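Ticket #4471: structure export looks truncated?
Reporter: QA, pipeline team
Priority: medium

Steps to reproduce: submit the single chain below to the structure queue and open the exported record.
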Amino acid sequence: MARGVIRHLKRMFAPSHWMLDKLKGRWAPKPSAGPHKMRECLPLIVMLRERLKYALTYREVKMIVMQRLIQVDGKVRTDMFYPAGFMDVVQIEKTKENFRLLYDTKGRFALHKISKEEASYKLCRVKKVFRGPKGTPYCITHDGRTLRYPDPVVKVNDTVRVEVPSGKMLDYVKFEPGSTAMIGGGNNTGRVGIIQHRERHPGSFEIVHLKDAAGHNFATRLQNVFVIGQGTKPWISLPKGHGIRLSIIEDRAAKMAKAK
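Actual output as written to the record:
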């Protein structure tokens, strides 16, 4: 019988893309409730301790966040279990660093370093468009934002560019063949390609076919596709590899060349 909220997470059942050591402890940080799902986020404690290596222990992470040094999407976050997710902008004033959370082609979060100008906006995928009280139009985005009075052209699956501190909608890009998209879920997570066409399957999952810059074709479900730019020009800078997945042999050859 359930007796309230589960506040713990065993390390064995933590998402594998956090890449926590299996033998360094029994527990893993349980993300707080927030804009991203537990298994699709990166808590600030994992980011600061495991990725950026700015802290060695839980206590040190707590000291960093309680000094109000970490901003996510322009807002100071003092909860070290805050779930940062896909497309979020993380700013550290003290080190003058700005990061955007993107995926690499192996499906892991990449803290991609960006300029201050690029950190002033983020992209949001529209999940729902509806009318609220008194016929006010609203749209809801993948990170839990509610945008009032969006452009009437904006529909579900489109992407809007949002100003980071204020949350105002600046621009939008339509989900249509010819647009550049990044995959945010499934086996092709982190790949970037140009939308070729969309297969409609009423009552089942719609499939989108894409082609990357190396000429490889791949397909995924519609809900995994996140449009990031019009034509071949993305609105955001991409992490190393530019979303092109290498085969096992190509990956090994690249590693060997680097080691020499």
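Status: closed, not a bug. The export was complete when the record was re-opened. Leaving a note from the reviewer for reference: The chain has a mean pLDDT of 91.
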